């Protein structure tokens, strides 16, 4: 007796919701040597394809730049001990949406 064996594969296509910016960045004035924090709120939790830039240079989470997410939707960037070289435009991007300060 021989029984045909068939592999059964299931799957699906799940579209991620279009994450938009609910509350954008605000301009900040800070003294040299101080820390400064920028916040941007997005429409959905666990947003992927998120990027922070300073003068078009992508920022990474390290000892000088703290990148985090609060309450799932509020993305924050803290620049530690800013100097004159940090003067410029901060950009937050999620997917095709951007906010600058």
TrEMBL record:
Alphabetically ordered keywords of this record: Cytoplasm, Disulfide bond, Phosphoprotein
Principal location: cytoplasm
Keyword Phosphoprotein: yes
Gene: Obscn_3
CC terms in the record's Gene Ontology section: cytoplasm
Matching PANTHER family: OBSCURIN (PTHR35971:SF4), SI:DKEY-31G6.6 (PTHR35971)
Protein source organism: Rostratula benghalensis (greater painted-snipe)
Record's protein name: OBSCN protein
Cross-referenced Pfam families: I-set
Domain of life: Eukaryota
Ig-like domain ranges (all copies): 17-101
Localization annotation: Cytoplasm
